[in-house]
Amino acid sequence: MTTDAPFLAISDANRRHLLEELRRGPKTVSELAAGLPVSRPAVSQHLKVLLDAGLVSARAEGTRRVYAVSISGFRKLNIWLDQFWDA
């Protein structure tokens, strides 16, 4: 994960909304799309950006993919941010 990827990923309001929804628990694309004024394919594209940034994970459940917040991805981001509080 590059340092820029998570920041670029969370710069979009729709992706921040997805992260807030996933913070409440794992969800499918359909469940996530229900709360946004964008299509399921658009939600999938946003999730790919979050996946590539290491901020979410996905697991197969039958024919569906279930997305969740990646604790390790946020831990790496938090470690990077924490260095500024110790300066």
Helix-strand string:
HHEHHEEH
What is the typical, i.e. mean, pLDDT?
91
| Number of separate strands | 3
Main sheet record? 3 strands, antiparallel
Number of helices: 5
Please state roughly what percent of the residues sit in beta strands, choosing from under 5%, 5-15%, 15-25%, 25-35%, 35-45% or over 45%.
Answer: 15-25%
Radius of gyration: 13 Å
Order of adjacent strands in the largest pleated sheet? 1-3-2
Rough outline: elongated
- Poorly predicted regions are none
Which percent bin holds the helix content?
55-70%
First-last Cα distance: 23 Å
Provide the structure class: alpha+beta
Concise summary:
The chain is an alpha+beta fold and 87 residues long. It has helices at 4-10, 13-23, 29-33, 40-52, 71-82; strands at residues 27-28, 56-61, 64-69. The protein starts with a helix and ends in a 5-residue tail after the last helix.
Architecture overview:
- It is a single chain.
- The protein is α+β, with helices and mostly antiparallel strands and 87 residues long.
- Helix content is 55%, strand content 16%.
- The protein is built from 5 helices and 3 strands, in the order H-H-E-H-H-E-E-H.
- The chain has a 3-stranded antiparallel β-sheet.
- Strand 2 and strand 3 form a beta hairpin.
- Helix 1 runs antiparallel to helix 4.
- The longest helix has 13 residues, at 40-52.
- The chain is elongated, with a radius of gyration of 13 Å.
- The two termini are 23 Å apart.
- InterPro entries: ArsR-like_HTH, HTH_ArsR_DNA-bd_dom, HTH_MetalResp_TranReg, WH-like_DNA-bd_sf, WH_DNA-bd_sf.
- It holds the Pfam family HTH_5.
- Residues 1-87 form the HTH arsR-type domain.
- Keywords: DNA-binding, Transcription, Transcription regulation.
